Amino acid sequence: MNIHAIANHLNGLGDNSQTGFRFDCYPIEGDVEVLQVNIVGREEIPIFVSVTDNQVLCISYLWGEDEVKTETRAEMFETMLELNIPMPLSAFAKIDDKYVVYGALSLKSSMAEIEQELSVLSDNCLEVIAEMADYLN
Predict the structure, then answer these.
(1) With the C-alpha atoms ordered 115, 121, 125, 131, is the resulting torsion angle positive or negative?
(2) What is the total count of domains within the chain?
(3) Which residue ranges of the chain lie beneath pLDDT 50?
(4) What is the pLDDT of residue 18?
(5) What is the pLDDT of residue 125?
(6) What secondary structure letter does DSSP report for 2?
(7) Do 23 and 5 meet the contact criterion of CB atoms below 8 Å apart?
(8) E-assigned strand segments in the chain
(9) Could you tell me which of 116, 84, 86 has the C-alpha nearest to residue 101?
(10) pLDDT the model gives residue 89
(11) d(Cα 61, Cα 42) in Å, to the nearest integer?
(12) Which H/E stretch holds residue 37?
């Protein structure tokens, strides 16, 4: 399992995906191989996929610390904790000064399972952004 196999599969789906989405995938060069996955129509919320020795990790960046209303920060954290369980296949984290939603899969996951994870993660991002709008500038 590697990002190139995932990219080839998703790009090759066209209109035949199980989720109804179309994917545009682009490898990003660097020390760690990362695949940028855009769901057509949702390009403003890309998902970044990396494959480690243990898992397939999928991350989508939501907003920066500078976008959070200072006076509502604690309430935002409480809401994020409450949303973690009902948000299938995804969880919150913070990387440097950016808030993210992520999901992880087994290296033994099928391409269909990876497609499903990416679709659910994208849906969750849209729901989270709508739910958290009151906490952001």
Answers:
(1) positive
(2) 1
(3) none
(4) 95
(5) 96
(6) -
(7) no
(8) 23-28, 34-39, 47-51, 55-64, 91-95, 98-106
(9) 84
(10) 83
(11) 13
(12) strand 34-39
Burial class (CB in 10 A: 0-12, 13-18, 19+), 57: middle
Residue 58 domain boundaries: 3-135
What does the alpha-carbon distance between residue 101 and residue 124 come to, in Å, rounded to a whole number?
Answer: 8
Rounded-to-integer distance, Cα 25 and Cα 7, Å: 5
Mean pLDDT of the chain: 96
Q: What's the pLDDT at 130?
A: 95
Q: At what angle do helices 111-132 and 73-84 cross, to 10 degrees?
A: 150
Q: Closest Cα to residue 122, out of 54, 2, 22, 32? A: 22
Tens digits of residue pLDDT in 10-34: 999 999 999 999 999 999 999 999 9
Q: Which amino acid is at 90?
A: S
CATH code, domain with 65: 3.30.1460.10
Are the C-beta atoms of 22 and 13 separated by less than 8 Å? Answer: yes
